[in-house]
Specification:
The chain has 509 residues and is α+β, with helices and mostly antiparallel strands. The chain contains 21 helices and 6 strands. A hairpin with an 8-residue loop joins strand 4 and strand 5. It is found in: Cell membrane. It is a multi-pass membrane protein.
Length: 509
């Protein structure tokens, strides 16, 4: 019979599991962090706002297939073991990410470019669907009772740290090679670098041993013959799957993606803040907030998981709209007075040929410096047609690439930090919460599905649905927030009524 490893080996387990999971999240989130730049590469030059929406749709597609990955790889994990299953997911994720970095642009292969990226994005989603459940289960099954919230919370940091790593490498690459080169070809660097990270993680994971609980079941011949059937055809288990989804992971998902991804997307694309500033804001906020995953995970061992997670949802429901209104107010240049302007640089004009021979897209960008030290670019877009009988199309002026004063920058950091604190509240305890709901022989399958439907589908669609809602006629920039607020409210109500305030003393081992 396999014995449970000594206490001090748990940190080796956490390290090996967390590194691979961090790299998978890094691979998965590079795409979202570069959505505006990738959109310009995958779609025609005159696609305008639809390029961003279409790119966010491709980004969202990876989330939609995550539940299918959870079913496929969850079943494998409950049949053949945790170790080899999430080793396979790592290989699939790393290979897909590397290939995205090699896909030619729209100008070279037309609409084959977004189609190929979509296919690889779907493979990424399937792989991630199998990764998280395996890593969380693996760590939980090594952890001693009474400490599962603490130890699994280290796995919970990897999603945010993967985002942090992706943002850091993106900013570093852009600053090293310059903005124009990065927008042209340098955006591929973070994708291509991932193959090195994956290679290191594969080497480490090959040295890992199987989970002691799963090894014990295998030795005793008690492995589930059909984990899918046991998870979803037995009434008691299926009830727990539904409760986990609608009472916890659904609300957790929208809080996670609003507080990090939508925050960065809103600051960059709606408030038109400079590329670097928008990412530095998130980097600082994540750096300050990440330790709280472990704080709330550990706290949940003592006071239970329920009210910590629901508290994070409730605070998001109450404070999202006021926070995002501050983002808008502090970047509003519509009432700018000429007396506030210190300097106006010489305009930079770029011309791009469109599909119809002779038609040209003309961008006139003028950098303006204000007396308070902040800057922005005034962009005027004109379409000059070859046919003189057609009028010259003129788009409204756009104020973009806004740099912030020091005070405003740190205010934004504080507001995003608060949102990431909410993320740590809902996400820190949830791995232990899910593990505790299901017995060992079907745990990988049972916990993976509600997690990836709630986090992947409801949460992962936040940037796309919120941006789409805000683009509707009559909508305001804050209209998109009704989606995460509505989902979090529903999950809060269901969780408050039906969830037990559990600790791991009642875990189904």
């Amino acid at each position: 019979m396999t014995s449970i490893p000594k206490q001090n080996s748990i940190f080796k387990v956490i390290g090996a599991s967390s590194l691979g999971t961090l790299i998978e999240w890094y691979d998965f989130y590079i795409f979202g962090s570069l959505a505006s730049i990738i959109g310009a590469q995958l779609f025609p030059a005159d696609a305008g706002a639809s390029a961003l929406i279409n790119t966010l749709a491709i980004f969202a597609a990876g989330f939609i297939v995550r539940p299918f990955g959870a079913l496929v790889f969850g079943r494998l994990g409950d049949l053949i073991g945790r170790k080899y299953t999430f080793l396979l997911t790592l290989v699939l994720m790393g290979g897909s990410t590397f290939l995205i970095g090699l896909i030619p642009s729209y100008s070279s292969i037309g609409y084959a470019a977004p189609i190929l990226v979509l296919i690889l994005r779907l493979i990424q989603g399937l792989a991630l669907g199998g990764e998280y459940g395996g890593a969380a289960t693996y760590v939980a099954e090594h952890a001693p009772k009474g400490r599962r919230g603490f130890f699994t919370s280290w796995i919970q940091t990897t999603a945010t740290l993967g985002l942090f790593l992706s943002l850091g490498i993106i900013v570093l690459a852009k600053n090293l090679i310059g903005a124009s080169a990065f927008a042209d070809w340098g955006w591929r660097i973070p994708f291509l670098l991932s193959i090195l990270l994956v290679g290191v993680s594969i080497y480490i994971r090959l040295k890992m041993h199987e989970s002691p609980m799963f090894a014990k079941l295998k030795t005793e011949g008690k492995i589930s013959k059909n984990p899918l059937k046991e998870s979803f055809s037995k009434k008691a288990n299926f009830k727990m799957v539904l409760l986990a989804l609608f009472g916890a992971t659904m609300g957790q998902g929208v809080i996670w993606y609003t507080g990090q991804f939508y925050a960065q997307s809103f600051i960059e694309n709606t408030c038109k803040v400079d590329f670097n500033d928008s990412r530095y804001i998130l980097l600082w906020a994540i750096a300050f907030a990440t330790p709280f995953f472990v704080v709330f995970g550990s706290w949940s061992d003592r006071v239970g998981r329920k009210w910590i997670m629901l508290g994070g949802m409730l605070l998001g429901i109450v404070f999202y709209r006021p926070i995002y209104q501050v983002f808008l107010d502090k970047t509003d240049l519509s009432q700018l007075q000429p007396t506030a302007i210190k300097d106006v640089a010489q305009p930079v004009i770029t011309k791009t040929a469109l599909h119809t021979a002779g038609d040209t897209l003309v961008n006139t960008s003028t950098k303006i410096t204000l007396l308070n030290g902040s800057t922005f670019n005034k962009l005027q877009v004109d379409t000059v047609y070859a046919n003189s009988n057609k009028p010259i199309g003129h788009a409204k002026e756009i104020m973009k690439d806004k740099t912030l004063t020091s005070g405003t920058f740190w205010l934004f950091v504080a507001l995003v930090f608060f949102q990431v604190i909410l993320v740590t509240m809902v996400y820190g305890p949830i791995a232990a919460f899910l593990v505790e709901l299901f017995p060992t022989q079907i745990r990988y399958t049972s916990m993976s599905l509600p997690y990836h439907v709630g986090n992947g589908v409801f949460g992962g669609l936040v940037p796309f649905i919120a941006t789409l809602i805000a683009s509707f006629a009559g909508a305001t920039p804050l209209s998109g927030l009704w989606y995460p607020i509505g989902i979090a409210t529903l999950s809060f109500i269901i969780g408050a009524v039906y969830l037990a305030n559990q600790t791991d003393e009642n875990i189904n081992d």
